[in-house]
């Protein structure tokens, strides 16, 4: 086992975990990813109908195994700044605030350790991803995902799971972050921190070398490698911190560019739905928070939301709602996905998520939405435009369609489409047919590329991560950590001085 921790959120834990999984899978090792507790609005449905973090599904793909609920036994889905839905082994069990969540911790610790034991019994190696930073000392007492997990994963007489800490040098201050992360930990935790990885380096390696030597001298821990900045890298991520690093636009082979604007909702969820559009040559995707940013768009997308009613209110406050309605009534294309589809309805009855009761939607589709206590989690299949579509559903809102043309499980009226199906745009034939229809409706001279293979593009990204690990990390040292654990007698780093 090995735990990949980070100096901060979005330091590179998810991608490094995926890269190590792909590197090991290439060696013929049966490997699985694991994240004990994930806070994310980007989730996925497994084959048996369990909801897990989308990043863990991506890491399972890197490991070339089918994702399961055991790979992410606890998922927290924030609905506001203070409350989250708690998903355990793929099923929601409660809506809690931070203090209420503490009451669940003891039982959840048992669930986490049981899931890890299940994976260890089924796989040769388990690569664990931490959450946030292990140095969040205000949360250490109840920690499930970082050093608490590393300590608990050892045998009764053993030291626990070895940990490497990854830091993002592109943010600046990486050496202070690495040193401070170790220095803030209690001695028993420090003894499991085996070394460091530096992520997103661009520049002359010789300028970095003195810093690598000094951080090793100060902490008594090696740097296992420096991962270079890799432009154009995109993967399924956990949260909106990475929204601005989505797939780059690819130039069109012929004709015009198709411009897509996506409402950047405060509680946006499953925004990976848009990755397949970004990967299509000639399609540009940008996120919008103001009406003017929709002005030249050929397609406006209302994406998924963890807080449909609250995010609909935000659309009105920002002036985006009025602009979306104006565009739709002028025959300009609008697509709503899951929560965004619900916003397009005539009426939303929500006594579950927001407790707001009946709320007027945008009135663009003949649909009435009522929130149900039980969450729908499934992987449906169907056809549209004569093309097969495989997707997944994650929602409490149940949409009753009262008219319009059928569109997947939803409907279409004029230039407005709506569906609860996530991932539909990853189906190449359907995506091309839909974009061609959008282009015709928008009056654009745009023809989708006939050979874009989104699954192959995603697989190439995972291979690129495996290449980074293989070429730039000390893989022999990583393998020794996995086999034998952290080196004994690692020095204790005081918060304010050199290692002893």
Automatic annotation (TrEMBL):
Function field: Catalyzes amidations at positions B, D, E, and G on adenosylcobyrinic A,C-diamide. NH(2) groups are provided by glutamine, and one molecule of ATP is hydrogenolyzed for each amidation.
Keywords: Cobalamin biosynthesis, Glutamine amidotransferase
Pathway annotation from the record: Cofactor biosynthesis; adenosylcobalamin biosynthesis
Listed PANTHER family: COBYRIC ACID SYNTHASE, DETHIOBIOTIN SYNTHETASE
PROSITE patterns xref list: GATASE_COBBQ (PS51274), GATASE_TYPE_1 (PS51273)
Residue span(s) of domain CobB/CobQ-like glutamine amidotransferase: 259-429
Protein name (record): Cobyric acid synthase
InterPro entries for this protein: Class_I_gatase-like, CobQ/CobB/MinD/ParA_Nub-bd_dom, CobQ_GATase1, CobQ_N, CobQ_synth, GATase_3, P-loop_NTPase
NCBIfam families assigned: cobQ, PRK00784.1
Gene3D superfamilies in UniProt: 3.40.50.880, P-loop containing nucleotide triphosphate hydrolases (3.40.50.300)
Higher taxonomy: Bacteria, Bacillati, Actinomycetota, Actinomycetes, Streptosporangiales
Record-annotated active site: 338, 422
Family label: Belongs to the CobB/CobQ family. CobQ subfamily.
Residue ranges annotated for the CobQ/CobB/MinD/ParA nucleotide binding domain, each copy included: 3-229
């Amino acid at each position: 086992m090995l735990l990949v921790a980070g100096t901060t959120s979005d330091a590179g834990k998810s991608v490094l975990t995926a890269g190590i999984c792909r590197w090991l899978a290439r060696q013929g090792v049966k490997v699985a990813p694991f994240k004990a507790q994930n806070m994310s609005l980007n989730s996925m449905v497994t084959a048996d109908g369990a909801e897990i973090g989308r990043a863990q599904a991506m890491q399972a793909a890197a490991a070339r195994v089918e994702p399961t609920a055991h790979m992410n036994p606890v998922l927290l889905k924030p609905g506001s700044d203070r409350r989250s839905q708690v998903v355990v082994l793929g099923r929601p069990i409660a809506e809690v605030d931070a203090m209420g969540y503490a009451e669940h911790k003891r039982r959840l610790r048992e669930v986490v350790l049981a899931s890890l034991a299940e994976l260890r019994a089924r796989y040769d190696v388990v690569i664990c991803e931490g959450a946030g930073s292990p140095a969040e000392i205000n949360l250490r007492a109840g920690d499930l995902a970082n050093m608490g997990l590393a300590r608990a994963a050892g045998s009764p007489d053993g030291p626990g799971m070895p940990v490497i800490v990854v830091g993002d040098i592109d943010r600046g201050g990486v050496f202070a972050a690495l040193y401070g992360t170790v220095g803030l930990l209690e001695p028993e935790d420090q003894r499991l921190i085996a070394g460091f990885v530096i992520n997103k380096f661009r520049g002359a390696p010789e300028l970095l070398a003195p810093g690598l030597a000094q951080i090793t001298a100060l902490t008594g821990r090696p740097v296992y490698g420096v991962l270079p900045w890799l432009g154009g890298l995109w993967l399924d991520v956990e949260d909106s911190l990475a929204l601005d690093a989505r797939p780059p636009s690819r130039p069109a082979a012929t004709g015009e560019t198709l411009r897509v604007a996506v409402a950047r909702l405060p509680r946006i969820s499953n925004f990976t739905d848009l990755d397949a559009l970004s990967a299509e040559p000639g399609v540009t995707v940008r996120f919008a928070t103001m009406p003017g940013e929709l002005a030249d768009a050929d397609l406006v997308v209302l994406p998924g939301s963890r807080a449909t009613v609250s995010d609909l209110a935000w659309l009105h406050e920002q002036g985006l709602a009025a602009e979306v309605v104006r565009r739709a009534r002028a025959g300009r294309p609008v697509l709503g996905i899951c929560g965004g589809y619900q916003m397009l309805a005539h009426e939303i009855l929500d006594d579950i998520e927001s407790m707001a009761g009946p709320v007027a939607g945008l009135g663009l589709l003949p649909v009435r939405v009522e929130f149900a206590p039980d969450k729908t989690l499934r992987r449906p299949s169907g056809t549209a435009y004569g093309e097969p579509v495989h997707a997944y559903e994650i929602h409490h809102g149940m949409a009753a369609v009262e008219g319009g043309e059928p569109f997947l499980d939803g409907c279409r009226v004029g230039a407005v489409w709506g569906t609860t199906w996530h991932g539909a745009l990853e189906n190449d034939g359907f995506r091309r047919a839909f974009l061609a229809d959008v282009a015709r409706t928008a009056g654009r001279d745009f023809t989708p590329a006939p050979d874009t293979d989104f699954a192959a593009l995603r697989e190439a990204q995972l291979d690129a991560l495996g290449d980074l690990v293989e070429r730039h990390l000390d893989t022999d040292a990583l393998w020794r950590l996995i086999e034998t654990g952290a080196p004994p007698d690692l020095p204790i780093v005081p918060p304010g001085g050199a290692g002893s």
